[in-house]
C-alpha cells in the first residue's frame, strides 16, 4: 500500500486524490498547504486523515510513504526538493520545473539520496499511448517522418492570472506545450534542431506558440500551443508505411486509429485496462516503490531533462524569460 502525501489543494491535487481513492494499493493519507484552513477543507472534502499547514511537518510524517507535488510549476523545485531532502520519494507534476537547471538539481538530489523521483507525465503511463509506442517501434508504420500535435485553450486570462505571470512560469508553453513536446520526444527522442515563433503578452509570456523540431533522421515535428483559442488537441504520427491518428485529448486517449499502407482499411486500437486518468501514473509509482526502483522506465528522468532542454530552447528562441532563469 502506497500512502500518499499531497502538496497543494488545487484542481489537479483534487483529481489525483479522487483517482487514487479508487485504487486498491494506494491511499492519500495527508495533505499539506501553506494555508492550514485550505488543507483542512481539502482533507474534509476527500476524507484525508491528516491536514498540514506546514509542508515540512507532512514530509516528516512517518505515515507518508511518497509525496505528490501538485503546486503551480514555479514552486515545483522548492517543494519537490524539500520532500527529497526529508527522505521522501516524489512524483512531481509537469512541467517538472521551470528550466533544465532546476530539474537537474532535483535529479541530482534524488540520486544522491537514493530516492525515487518521477515527473507526473500521465500520458507516458497511458496504456493506449504505450501500445502506440510499441507499434511504432515494431515498424507498424515504417520509419517515422513527422509528428503533429497541438494544445490550445480559449482564455482570456486576466493580467494577474498565473498564466500571464512570468514569476509563476506563465504562458502557454510550460502549461500546455509540454504535452506536444513530450509526445513528440516520446516518439522520436530529443531533437537536433529547435525553431519557434510566438506572440507574447504584455507581461512577456507566450500566448500563441509554434514549434518546428528536427531530427538527424530527417523527421520533423510541428507543434503548437496557445491561450487564445481552443485547438483540436489531436496528434498524428506519420511514417513511410502508414500513420497513427490520436483523437481529441491526445494526452489521455482511450483509442487511436492505425492506418497501414498494407491494410484494407483503418484499425481502431484500444487498450484493455481497468484504470483511468491519473491512476496509471499512481500505479506506476506504486509498482516502482514496491520493486525498490528509484526511477520509472515509463517516465525516465533522462527523458524529462531532454524535454526541458527543448522547452528552454523554445523560450530562448521566442524571448520568454523567467526571474528564476540563470542570468545571461
3D architecture notes:
The protein has 328 residues and is of the alpha/beta class. Strands 8-9-10-7-11-12-13-14 form an 8-stranded mixed beta sheet, covered by helices on one side. A 6-stranded parallel beta sheet has the order 3-2-1-4-5-6, sandwiched between helices. Helix 4 links the parallel strand 4 and strand 5. The longest helix is centred in the last third of the chain and has 18 residues. The model has no long low-confidence stretch (mean pLDDT 96).
What key attributes describe this structure?
23% strand; six-stranded parallel sheet; single chain; 328 residues
Work out the strand percent.
15-25%
Strand sequence of the main sheet, in spatial order? 8-9-10-7-11-12-13-14
Number of beta strands: 14
Instruction: Calculate Rg over CA atoms.
Output: 20 Å
- Fraction of helical residues: 25-40%
Low-pLDDT segments, ≥5 res: none
Q: In angstroms, what separates the terminal alpha carbons? A: 46 Å
Shape: globular
Mean pLDDT: 96
Number of helices: 10
Biggest β-sheet strands, sense, barrel: 8 strands, mixed
